[in-house]
């Protein structure tokens, strides 16, 4: 198993190299001169020229690419043009905020989605099953930005229970911190929660029909134990896959959610960087996200190994 | 049985959905007191509030973009200046109505005959806010020299390029030498980019000075969190008067809907840059106040003067006459967020000349057709218009497309791009027509020289290649004299030639529109969008 993990880690290197090259090419292909964009419509021509020189934009693309690669290997992502700060420090200032939002949302989605899926499967064709599955269907098809706006209208503007924008600070007390987190994380958790509920239900339904469940029941083992211990364990692999997929897409969802709730995370930073042609910042941020993506996939694969040792990524023996 | 259950389930879901939809309704119609722990109930009659009761409270104001760098010489956006100008002072300012330059850190000034030397007398009661590298020392002539020369040499937008050097005459008197006569010098000095700052802090903090900005203004910067907020605290030693407010928090909210929502929930006290439906929402909410002033703003369509059919003046006149500009403006600004424009200068500028408005060709489709025929384009042609992807520009292009097709059989292809892409195409003269807007200081120099002087061809201001030696000369001459009335005369002459050249359609002056919670007292809106909370005449306070 360790060997597999190590191998997968090695695979990260070519992937990230490829990603960094693609990002470099794409950012250069977006039309618009970063120097002119940054300085705005009223910039004198000589000021724009001077900035181009400072930023190294006068060098050939090949030269720029070599410098970029060399810096990345050194772990230096350059300086953001617009903020005048190192990209690394900007990313690490913001990343924890996105991570917090994503983890809370994932947690919410798990504790809501999976139990609902299990109960729906065990109480098949009950009212609970119908209601929760229809809501789940609405949930997966709900655009996040619409849901976010509705949540703000209901809970902030009309009821005035929760703040509508920004991130709270622990310095202002625990409630300030939590209250700012509720609406964005609920908005972000909706799609994954609904997905988890649907997948858990169908996976569980498949499992409870199996003969060994019947035999467990016939042995007189408690229903609770049959469902939560035996059935759930065997229903897990598809659920874990979906958790992995949803975790990755939480990141893209976070970008929208952050925009709606003025949450100071990576998403807003990237959108702003693209609008302002902040090459260095775009490159650094996309690389970071690519890394997280690949990393989550790695974790999912490792989790498979753990929950189902029969899976073998080396392709030697076992039923792949 | 199954069916009954399914029906019950559907019913429950329906109820759930209705609850959601109810959230979209107008909260005011629900009656009761849903919209306001603030509301108007806590507000007292401002005339009866005792002086000492006006002190206290933190005002929260939202800016519609994220400031990036608060170092005066490094800022390039618009929004940074709002924060900088509350922390720092400039030596002169524009008066509240923007008609003249008034004293600030400098009490009086004189210039020599040639307009190349300016002598300023300074206040002797001004102190810097305490920082890490100085303990709130007095501001002197040396600081003026340091700050302005730093800007002249290092400003990323070249805001003080005309300044050669500053000479310290005595502790409270300086003399500025210009490279050549430049009447826009005083206006340039009003820019937050030319704020007076303490050398110790700049050098001590280095790259991080933007996060540790210090100056002589009414509020001191306590914390600047990129993408979130800038927190300012009262400067008790402010020279003009003691601020009523304990502090100001600038919140950065890029979406108008979010901003209006935050205003309704009292998470902010002032929402700036309202437009579109947000204007209506604030207007309709009886717990909020809406205020507007005409902005120093012109939105225009600039036609290519160097190549293509629009290089022909007759074609340009035909295009102008084919568009009912009044109707177009009504169509673009459904919530009355702008007034119809005529000239390339906003009416708020002191170079504006109402008598020139008649020179703008009026709507006359028949004459337009005839002109196009005379120009040899009887069957029409196709043109490309470029605009940014801002909703107001896209709407404008669509309306224009209708008029040109209907009246002149011109096929207008609409190309929208986000700002970076757009500005590159427009400044290189690659567009047949481009639509954008211009907003800057009240001095006509910042409109006319930047958009019509031949030296600006290739920059975004004059991307379409306006080139008229007579205009160049008038604009140059207007810079060489310092008397504002004399200058205005020259600018009006230039503006006349510009208007008669039919180079553009100047269609709207957008208004500056803010929403306020009723608690805000004493705030005065300005056409230049400067947000002044405390000065010699202004002291904003919170009535709650």
Automatic annotation (TrEMBL), chain A:
GO terms for molecular function: nickel cation transmembrane transporter activity. SUPFAM superfamilies: MetI-like. This is Nickel import system permease protein NikB. The complex is composed of two ATP-binding proteins (NikD and NikE), two transmembrane proteins (NikB and NikC) and a solute-binding protein (NikA). Belongs to the binding-protein-dependent transport system permease family. OppBC subfamily. It is found in: Cell membrane. The keyword Cell membrane applies. It is a multi-pass membrane protein. Its main location: membrane. InterPro entries: BPD_transp_1_N, MetI-like, MetI-like_sf, Opp2B. Keywords: Cell membrane, Ion transport, Membrane, Nickel, Nickel transport, Transmembrane, Transmembrane helix, Transport. The chain crosses the membrane at residues 12-30, 99-121, 133-157, 177-197, 285-307. GO terms for cellular component: plasma membrane. The lineage of its organism: Bacteria, Bacillati, Bacillota, Tissierellia, Tissierellales.
From TrEMBL, chain B:
Residues 1-22 form the signal peptide. The keyword Signal applies. One of its GO terms (biological process) is peptide transport. It comes from the Bacteria. The keyword Mitochondrion does not apply. One of its GO terms (molecular function) is peptide transmembrane transporter activity. SUPFAM superfamilies: Periplasmic binding protein-like II. Keywords: Signal. It holds the Pfam family SBP_bac_5. Residues 100-457 form the Solute-binding protein family domain. InterPro entries: Peptide/Ni-bd, SBP_5, SBP_5_dom. GO terms for cellular component: ATP-binding cassette (ABC) transporter complex; periplasmic space. This is Periplasmic dipeptide transport protein. It comes from Tissierella creatinophila DSM 6911. The gene is dppA_1.
């Amino acid at each position: 198993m360790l060997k597999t993990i190590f191998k997968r880690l090695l695979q990260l290197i070519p992937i990230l190299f490829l990603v960094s090259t693609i990002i470099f090419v794409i950012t250069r292909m977006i039309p618009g001169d970063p120097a002119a964009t940054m300085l705005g419509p009223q910039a004198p021509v000589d000021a724009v020229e001077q900035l181009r020189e400072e930023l190294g934009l006068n060098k050939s693309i090949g030269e720029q690419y070599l410098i970029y690669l060399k810096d990345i290997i050194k772990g230096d992502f350059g300086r953001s043009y617009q903020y005048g700060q190192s990209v690394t420090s900007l990313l690490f200032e913001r990343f924890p905020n996105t991570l917090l939002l994503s983890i809370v949302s994932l947690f919410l989605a798990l504790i809501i989605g999976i139990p609902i899926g299990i109960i729906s499967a065990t109480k098949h064709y009950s009212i609970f099953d119908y209601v929760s599955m229809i809501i789940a269907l609405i949930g997966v098809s709900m655009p996040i930005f619409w849901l976010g706006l509705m949540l703000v209208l209901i809970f902030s503007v009309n009821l005035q229970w929760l703040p509508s924008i920004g991130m709270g600070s622990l310095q202002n007390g625990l409630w300030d911190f939590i209250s700012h987190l509720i609406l964005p994380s609920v908005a972000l958790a909706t799609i994954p929660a609904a997905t988890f509920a649907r997948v858990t239900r169908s996976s569980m339904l498949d499992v409870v029909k199996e003969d060994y469940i019947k035999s467990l029941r016939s042995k007189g083992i408690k229903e609770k134990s049959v469902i939560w211990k035996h059935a759930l364990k065997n229903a897990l692999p598809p659920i874990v896959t979906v958790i992995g997929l949803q975790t990755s897409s939480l990141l893209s969802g976070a970008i929208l959610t952050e925009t709606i709730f003025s949450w100071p995370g990576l998403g807003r930073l990237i959108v702003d960087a693209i609008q302002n042609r902040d090459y260095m910042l775009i490159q650094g941020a996309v690389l970071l996200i690519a890394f997280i993506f690949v990393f989550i996939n790695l974790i999912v694969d490792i989790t498979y190994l753990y929950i189902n040792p029969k899976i073998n990524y080396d392709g030697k023996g076992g039923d792949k | 049985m199954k069916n009954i259950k399914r029906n019950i389930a559907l019913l429950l879901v329906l109820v759930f959905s209705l609850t959601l939809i109810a959230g979209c309704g107008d909260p005011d119609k629900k009656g009761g007191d849903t919209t306001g722990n603030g509301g108007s109930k806590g507000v007292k009659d401002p005339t009866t509030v005792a002086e000492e009761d006006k002190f206290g409270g933190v005002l929260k104001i939202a800016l519609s973009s994220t400031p990036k760098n608060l170092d005066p010489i490094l800022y390039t956006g618009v929004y940074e200046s709002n924060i900088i100008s509350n922390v720092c002072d400039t030596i002169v300012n524009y008066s509240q109505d923007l008609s003249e330059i008034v004293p600030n850190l400098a009490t009086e000034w004189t210039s020599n005959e040639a307009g190349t030397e300016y002598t300023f007398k300074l206040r002797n009661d001004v102190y810097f806010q305490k920082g890490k590298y100085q303990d709130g020392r007095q501001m002197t002539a040396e600081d003026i020299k340091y700050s302005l020369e730093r800007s002249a040499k290092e400003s990323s937008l070249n805001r003080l390029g005309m300044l050669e050097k500053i000479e310290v005459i005595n502790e409270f008197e300086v003399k500025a030498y210009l490279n050549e006569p430049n009447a826009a010098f005083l206006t340039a000095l009003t820019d937050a980019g030319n704020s007076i700052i303490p050398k110790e802090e700049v050098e001590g903090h280095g790259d991080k000075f933007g996060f540790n900005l210090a100056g002589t203004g009414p509020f001191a910067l306590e914390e600047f969190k990129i993408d979130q907020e800038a927190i300012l605290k009262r400067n008790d030693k402010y020279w003009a008067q003691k601020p009523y407010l304990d502090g100001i928090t600038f919140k950065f909210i890029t979406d108008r809907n979010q901003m209006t929502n935050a205003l309704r929930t009292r998470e902010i006290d002032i929402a700036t840059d309202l437009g579109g439906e947000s204007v209506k929402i604030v207007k309709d909410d009886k717990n909020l106040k809406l205020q507007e002033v005409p902005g120093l703003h012109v939105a225009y369509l600039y036609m290519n003067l160097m190549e293509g059919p629009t290089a022909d003046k007759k074609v340009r006149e035909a295009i102008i006459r084919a568009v009912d500009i009044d109707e177009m403006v009504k169509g673009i600004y459904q919530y009355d967020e702008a007034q119809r424009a005529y000239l390339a200068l906003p009416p708020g500028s002191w170079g504006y000349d109402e008598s020139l408005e008649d020179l703008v060709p009026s709507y006359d489709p028949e004459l337009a057709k005839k002109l196009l025929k005379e120009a040899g384009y009887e069957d029409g042609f196709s043109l490309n218009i470029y605009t940014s992807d801002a909703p107001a520009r896209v709407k404008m292009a669509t309306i224009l497309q209708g008029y040109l097709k209907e009246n002149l059989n011109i096929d207008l292809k609409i190309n929208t791009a986000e700002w970076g892409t757009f500005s590159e195409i427009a400044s290189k003269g690659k567009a047949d027509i481009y639509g954008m807007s211009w907003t800057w200081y009240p001095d006509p120099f910042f409109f006319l020289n930047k958009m019509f002087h031949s030296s600006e061809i290739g920059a975004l201001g004059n991307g379409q290649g306006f080139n008229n030696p007579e205009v160049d000369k008038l604009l140059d001459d207007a810079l060489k004299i310092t008397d504002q009335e004399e200058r205005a005369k020259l600018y009006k002459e230039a503006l006349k030639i510009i208007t008669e050249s039919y180079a553009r359609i100047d269609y709207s002056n957008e208004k500056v529109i803010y929403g306020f919670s009723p608690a805000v007292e004493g705030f005065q809106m300005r056409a230049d969008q400067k947000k002044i909370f405390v000065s010699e005449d202004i002291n904003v306070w919170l009535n709650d």
